[in-house]
Each structure stands twice: as structure tokens, then as C-alpha cells.
Amino acid sequence: MSRTMMMLTMLIGYIGFGAMVGSLIHILLILAVVAIIFRLLSGGKTRV
Fold this sequence. Notes:
By secondary structure, the chain is mainly alpha-helical.
């Protein structure tokens, strides 16, 4: 589900409703990617 949300926000960011809204969505997308990477790194301790 989060993957679809990311793709939707990416599409909305590229299509955009103006420079301000587009940049805001891209900032949110970057924050989401950073959060996913952080969760993978912090949860990766249980993996081999």
C-alpha cells in the first residue's frame, strides 16, 4: 500500500498543481523515502 502511495505522490509531484504544491509533495516524498530507509536499517538487525 505504501508503494502505491509513493507512486501517487510522485505522479502528483510531476504533474503538479503549481511550483509550491509540487515542491511540497517532493519534500514529503523524500521524507517518506528517508523514513523507509531508516526503518529498513533499524529493522535489518534481525536479518542475516
